[in-house]
């Protein structure tokens, strides 16, 4: 049914870069056969899932929406993909995104944007716009995204779906094409909080192949989501981030957010206003740290190891081939990040830019830890504005970067955060963000589920 739905609507939505029809049907049949033989089935047996194209899938094209990886078929599965298969899920295909996950609208995909199912003239968010749109268009019931600065949560917010960024290190990065390694976090996208928790439980947990993977048991996120759905938040303290709840966001976004805060109070929660004075520096710190790490990570795309190679006619030097390949293979936003990052890391500037940004990161982490001494979770809108029309923020990169104003602090800290739909503004979905302490992903699910 989902393959039929994709065939019917994806020409208009363009959530997918690749649909693996044969693979999906074979996986579904395998589950049927297992069932017929009376074998024990995986926890998500037969449930279709869409996977962001930045995650390696064995034998299936993986491009990170870049021309430089066009035609590349990974020889291995990411750990997350292995776990999805072991759980019995059926992978439908690979979803569209901003090139190398750099962006907030999918307009930077080298293969054309994804359209928001709520209004095809508007962005579906980014970078994981394809995963979120596939859910909103009922092309998939579950999807995988990656969140470096908001790329799971912001697309969730603007498509009226649920997107959760787990604790950094709670989900394996093995097989994820690296953007900013100290921030990249794969996570679940779904239409309900409980569905997100079920997917979270399947993909999370220690992986010896990722050196930053946390060797601790995953909190019981499914039980927490079910408990929250019961609607009792007695004794739960919500910290309303003062800096994110006033001016700066669209009035309709703020109205929907504050209405939901009232609803949580009716369920027994207590709301405390919390000031996080360093959050306003998160965006500039992120746009030094993330491009610095990206400039290093993207050095591997040299025209030799994977995908595209340009100008290799036997007369050119290796360096000329590399530079022609990179010039032709990378899009404008990726080049901007590489240039920014290379500059920030260059000798003489390192301390002033990268070093300074790391210090700011520490101050932001302290804002979180001192807030969590007083409250259980922090809350804010997910993004300052609803889905915007195509082209309205591409001419000024800073306008695009603002989409992640409220999501980025969590990435710098490393804790979990989720976006849940909380009503409409001018007919378009608004997202409510719940941020929790590291490894308290269960707490985040409990509060999020109470909102539904
Ligand atoms: N929009 C942010 C960026 O462009 C976040 C990206 C992400 O989370 N992958 O870097």
UniProtKB/TrEMBL annotation:
Catalytic activity: L-glutamyl-tRNA(Gln) + L-glutamine + ATP + H2O = L-glutaminyl-tRNA(Gln) + L-glutamate + ADP + phosphate + H(+)
InterPro entries recorded: Amidase (IPR000120), Amidase_CS (IPR020556), Amidase_dom (IPR023631), AS_sf (IPR036928), GatA (IPR004412)
One Pfam family linked to the record: Amidase
GO molecular function, one term: glutaminyl-tRNA synthase (glutamine-hydrolyzing) activity
Any one annotated GO CC term: glutamyl-tRNA(Gln) amidotransferase complex
Active-site residue list: 52, 127, 151
GO BP terms, alphabetized: translation
Domain of life, per lineage: Bacteria
Enzyme class: ligase
Amidase domain sequence ranges: 1-443
EC number assigned by the record: 6.3.5.7
Keywords for the protein's UniProt record, in alphabetical order: ATP-binding, Ligase, Nucleotide-binding, Protein biosynthesis
Subunit annotation: Heterotrimer of A, B and C subunits.
Similarity field: Belongs to the amidase family. GatA subfamily.
Function according to Swiss-Prot or TrEMBL: Allows the formation of correctly charged Gln-tRNA(Gln) through the transamidation of misacylated Glu-tRNA(Gln) in organisms which lack glutaminyl-tRNA synthetase. The reaction takes place in the presence of glutamine and ATP through an activated gamma-phospho-Glu-tRNA(Gln).
HAMAP family xref list: GatA
This protein's name: Glutamyl-tRNA(Gln) amidotransferase subunit A
Organismal lineage: Bacteria, Bacillati, Actinomycetota, Actinomycetes, Micromonosporales
């Amino acid at each position: 049914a989902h393959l039929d739905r994709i065939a019917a609507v994806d020409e208009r939505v363009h959530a997918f870069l690749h649909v693996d029809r044969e693979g999906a049907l074979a996986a579904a049949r395998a589950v049927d056969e297992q069932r017929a033989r009376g074998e024990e089935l995986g926890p998500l047996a037969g449930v279709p899932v869409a996977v962001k194209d930045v995650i390696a899938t064995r034998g299936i094209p993986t491009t990170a929406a870049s021309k430089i990886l066009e035609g590349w078929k990974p020889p291995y599965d990411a750990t997350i993909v292995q776990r999805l298969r072991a759980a019995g899920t059926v992978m439908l295909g690979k979803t569209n995104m901003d090139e190398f996950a750099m962006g907030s609208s999918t307009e930077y995909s080298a293969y054309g944007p994804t359209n928001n199912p709520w209004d095809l003239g508007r962005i579906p968010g980014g970078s994981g716009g394809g995963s979120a749109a596939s859910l909103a268009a009922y092309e998939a019931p579950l999807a995988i995204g990656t969140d470096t600065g908001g790329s799971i949560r912001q697309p969730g917010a603007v498509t009226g779906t649920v997107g959760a960024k787990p604790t950094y290190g709670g989900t394996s990065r093995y097989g994820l094409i690296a953007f900013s390694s100290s921030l990249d976090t794969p996570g679940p996208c779904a239409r309900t909080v409980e569905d997100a928790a079920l997917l979270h439980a399947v993909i999370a947990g220690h992986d010896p192949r990722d050196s930053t993977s946390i060797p601790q048991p995953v909190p019981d996120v499914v039980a927490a989501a079910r408990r929250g759905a019961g609607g009792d938040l007695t004794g739960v303290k919500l910290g309303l981030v003062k800096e994110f709840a006033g001016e700066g966001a669209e009035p309709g976004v703020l109205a929907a957010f504050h209405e939901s805060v009232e609803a949580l109070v009716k369920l027994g929660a207590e709301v405390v206003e919390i000031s996080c004075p360093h959050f306003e520096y998160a965006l500039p710190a992120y746009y030094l740290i993330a491009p610095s790490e990206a400039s290093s990570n993207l050095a591997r795309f040299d025209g030799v190891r994977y995908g595209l190679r340009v100008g290799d006619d036997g007369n050119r030097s290796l360096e000329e081939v590399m530079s022609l390949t990179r010039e032709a293979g990378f899009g404008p936003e990726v080049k901007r990040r590489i240039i920014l990052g290379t500059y920030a890391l260059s000798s003489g500037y390192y301390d002033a830019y990268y070093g300074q940004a790391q210090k700011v990161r520490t101050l932001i982490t302290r804002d979180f830890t001192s807030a969590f001494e007083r409250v259980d979770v922090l809350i804010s809108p997910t993004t300052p504005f609803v889905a915007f029309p195509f082209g309205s923020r591409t001419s000024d990169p800073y306008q695009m970067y603002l989409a992640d104003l409220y999501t980025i602090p969590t990435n710098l800290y490393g804790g979990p955060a989720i976006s849940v739909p909380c009503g409409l503004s001018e007919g378009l979905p608004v997202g409510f963000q719940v941020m929790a302490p590291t490894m308290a992903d269960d707490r985040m699910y409990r509060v999020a589920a109470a909102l539904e």
